[in-house]
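Encode chain A's predicted structure.
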Amino acid sequence: MKITHVTTQIIRLPAVEPLADGPVAAGASRDIVTLTLGTDAGIEGIGLTYYGGFFGGPAIASLKAMVDQLAARVVGEDPLRGEAVLAKLRALGGNLGPGGVMAHAVAAIDIALWDIKGKASNLSLAQMVGGHRDRVITYASGALMRFYTLEHCLKAAPALVARGFRQMKMQLGLPGNKNPALEVERARRIREAIGPDIDLMCDINQHWSVHQAIDIGRRLEDVHLYWLEDVTAHDDYAGLARVADALTTPCAGGEYTYGITPFRHLFEAHAVDIAMIDLMRVGGITQWLKVAGMAEAFNIPVVSHVLPELHVHLIAGVPNGLNVEYIAWSSPLWEEIPVIENGELVVPDRPGLGLAFNRDILKRYAIA
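Encoded structure for chain A:
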């Protein structure tokens, strides 16, 4: 089998918060580059990429250009030889890699290669990567953002429970706030709104210093957070380790980490208790699996960052997969998405990613 043709598009979806009807700024969007790889066997593989939390802006055109240039160089390659294709792409990137736009572009191609492999073998992605379980717990994310008012969050959090979520994530690191008591009060009020039996995570997005993280983290211990996430600068391994050692609350991190090598540094420094792997920044499914395997050797569970429609396969497939972040920003892209039952995502059993682009959505929101 050979790759014969490539199609890419920029899709600009309107930004929405559908889980609890959160307010969204006028004109806000989610920018995505979609990719289709065709083969001489008639099998097509789909992939996608984006910047961070789908915030592309003017840079999204640069990302598409990188995807176009790299994907053009895989025409004629065997899509079942994924590592060989990735090695070629890394060599083409030269000094551009392994992080930044290079990693994001390679991720799209790698995802499409796995989709082709699954369709060719009639296996789902979850089966190909291990098939450890057929459903996985998922947590509501994106509905309790730091820039939402506390009043909104106190209504939204119980609404998530009513929808069947047994886990949810809020954010601290309040904009412009210098008073740790306000951070603690917000977390306590949201905990009171959902009761003691719902798992509550908290994302800081690197907004605290090491000293703030230890101080506020200790004050939050009676809130019984499931984890504190990205408490300080992602590459301050020593600082992250100090926080993780000082707190009884587990610390999660890795969302901002490019490639596989920095994860080794995180694990060796005992800087995280839970590894969060971003599918784009790590460089695709192949690299994601390498980090998950490395984490297993350190007895560290792994969790996902956005894109639940793909991550359900990966978290369910590996033995140390913990849960899937359910944030519905990418949901409109697909004809059909994984089903949630009793707070768990049911793993699709269709070949490959088990996904198909919604052509009406792609046509409606395509950017020239």
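DSSP finds twelve helices and 14 strands in the chain.
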